[in-house]
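Q: I have 346 residues here and want to know how they pack in 3D. Can you give me a structure?
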Amino acid sequence: MKIAVLCGGLSPERDVSLSTGRRVTLALKNLGHRAVMLDMYLGLEGFTGSAEEAFDLPLPASAGGIGLTEPDLDEIRRMRRTKSRSLFGERVLEVCAAADTVFMALHGRCGEDGRVQAAFDLLGIRYTGSGYLASAASMDKRLAKLVAREAGALTPCWRYYDAGRPPEGEIELPCVVKPVDSGSSLGVEIVSERRELPAAIARAMRESAGILIEDYIEGREIQISVLDGKALPSIEIIPGEGFYGYEQKYQPGAAIERTPADITPGQEASLASAAELIYRELGLRALARADFILDDEGRFWFLEFNTLPGMTPTSLAPQEAEAAGMSYEELCGRIVALSLEEDRQL
């Protein structure tokens, strides 16, 4: 099968996406597919072969791993040979159209927000993961929380503010300040001191068109992935220091990860049921990962759903799949198979 693994792009999570894309491409090649790693933004600059020949390209040299902070996107823009305003690089759409399916290995805005999926739908290009509406609703944490609350799930109370609009009224501390539409915990901060609040809000605003100020729920960080509507074993995150932020997620050894999580069978069943319900209500497909907090009273609080979970060496969804007896290659193969099954049902 010819598969274009779409990654990179122009997002603060670019480095994470490249790491995911590289590992997924290798796994698909090991499964016998003709897979090409395709940087959505930079494209195939300098490649003069046909779209068919692109699927036999070797993996590019390593991008250098994931740094402690997000990449400089202005530098990425300067690297581009063409000055096109399109977020699709040279020959990206041509190769994606020639593929049997596109493995979506993008993370963050313009990847998980539904715009790429919508473009592919219009062009008749098959792809893995959720459709454009479910992707957009899940990327907007405010909308996802509204759907979860309507479905009966617990979610921390929040206030939403557009970029540039100062928060109104008294904000109870501690609180969590987060961009409404970013991933990898970029711009997310737990604020305990009132003097820290203005700077945290300003930093979050830089990452997004709006922010949430959410009640802080003290407890254990439990995440759970859902594959084709069925929950995988949960995973508990124990950060080495502070909360589970960008650095802790992608630097080996920065956090302790336990899967299955050390919770009772009843709690595991309750968590799985809640995640599967929200997955259905959001209209998600294939693999997605939900973030929850387990408080001291044994209640699970829904935070968000990630529609394109990381598949890097430190990512959580592959660890959960492994705990369920599924290898990394098998997980990638299952995601591809689901994209073809879902296409036949349209």
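Q: Anything worth noting?
A: The CA atoms of residues 10 and 75 lie 11 Å apart. The two ends are 21 Å apart (CA to CA).
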